[in-house]
């Protein structure tokens, strides 16, 4: 007598669902979207020429903030660029200084800049609170370039890096949470609380927020093999939905990218994802900026 598992008294486990959905849950036109987004980014101008969009990237050490800045620079310059220092996973942190990154274009610079702030590695509840206060100051434009944040003490008004009278260009126009898609501890309570606290402040200030999942190539072999599987992967979809439910950012404000981190050549599909999120960022930040354009871009000079 042969014994077939599942036919006897014992029930066999149902087969796990296949790793890829039949239809992606978000549509990307891999041929066309890159060119449309590139055109949008290259031609975007704020209404007032003196204005620029400030994009603040926030996320844990090693999430891929510097790599994202390098990836955007590489896509726009159409060659591999490594200006923002990328950390080694074994190093503690490299991005200690608050620094503005501009990207050169033919006759000048793109009208948007990046800053990054690391967080979520706190020795105590107190240091977490200090960090959240520093981020709030940055959102309002009070933080000058070059400051090294002190985890034990928030930036004070007396500090030389404290900008007492920020202009519209000093303020943050969009807040981007950078999340390593493969972090198992993604939803540690302190991370959720930090994001929620920072989001509350951004909401009060009217600043839009989005989130970017990086390192999607490490989530499943299907994406590593072909980045076009990004929005067909069940595992990544689950992670993004879970994150959305935990922190309250709607799913349509959460994007996925693979950064250029090891490769030497650009690829159209990787470019497409990077440009698609950049386009949304510029769009949301630009909307926010235009609602504030009644304010002057720079500190008003005394007319005396
Ligand atoms: N596999 C993979 N590795 C990445 C990706 N983005 C960044 N990394 C790596 O993650 C590490 C930390 O990146 P980094 O940009 O320095 O993170 P930061 O601390 O947030 O600025 C580096 O070793 C990068 O090469 C990605 O999309 N895929
Ligand atoms: Mg960095």
TrEMBL record:
Pfam families: MMR_HSR1
Highest taxon listed in the record's lineage: Eukaryota
InterPro entries: GTP-bd (IPR006073), P-loop_NTPase (IPR027417)
GO molecular function, one term: GTP binding
Listed SUPFAM superfamilies: P-loop containing nucleoside triphosphate hydrolases
GO biological process, one term: immune response
G domain residues: 54-180
Coiled-coil stretches noted in the UniProt entry, renumbered to this chain: none
PANTHER family, A to Z: INTERFERON-INDUCED PROTEIN 44, INTERFERON-INDUCED PROTEIN 44-RELATED
Identification of the protein by name: Interferon-induced protein 44-like
């Amino acid at each position: 007598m042969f014994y077939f598992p599942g036919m006897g008294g014992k029930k066999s486990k149902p087969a796990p669902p296949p790793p890829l959905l039949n239809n992606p849950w978000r549509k990307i036109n891999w041929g066309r979207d890159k060119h449309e987004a590139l055109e949008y980014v290259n031609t975007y101008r704020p209404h007032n020429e003196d204005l620029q969009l400030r994009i603040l990237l926030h996320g844990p050490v090693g999430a891929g903030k510097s790599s994202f800045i390098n990836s955007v620079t590489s896509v726009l310059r159409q060659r591999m660029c490594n200006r923002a220092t990328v950390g080694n996973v074994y190093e503690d942190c490299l991005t200690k200084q608050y620094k503005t990154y501009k990207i050169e274009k033919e006759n000048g610079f793109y009208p948007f800049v990046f800053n990054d702030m690391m967080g979520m590695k706190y020795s105590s509840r107190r240091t977490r609170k200090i960090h959240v206060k520093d981020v709030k100051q940055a959102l309002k434009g009070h933080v000058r370039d070059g400051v090294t944040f002190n985890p034990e003490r928030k930036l004070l008004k007396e500090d030389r890096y404290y900008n007492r009278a920020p202009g519209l260009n000093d303020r943050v126009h969009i807040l981007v949470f950078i999340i390593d898609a493969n972090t198992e501890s993604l939803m540690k309570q302190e991370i959720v609380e930090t994001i929620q606290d920072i989001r509350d402040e951004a909401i009060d200030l009217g600043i839009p927020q989005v989130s970017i999942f990086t390192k999607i190539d490490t989530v499943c072999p299907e994406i590593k093999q072909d980045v076009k599987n990004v929005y067909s992967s069940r595992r990544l979809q689950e992670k993004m939905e879970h994150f959305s439910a935990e922190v309250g950012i709607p799913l349509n404000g959460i994007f996925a990218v693979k950064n250029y981190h090891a490769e030497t050549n650009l690829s159209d599909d990787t470019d497409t994802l990077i440009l698609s999120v950049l386009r949304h960022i510029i769009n949301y930040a630009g909307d926010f900026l235009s609602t504030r354009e009644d304010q002057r871009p720079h500190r008003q000079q005394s007319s005396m």
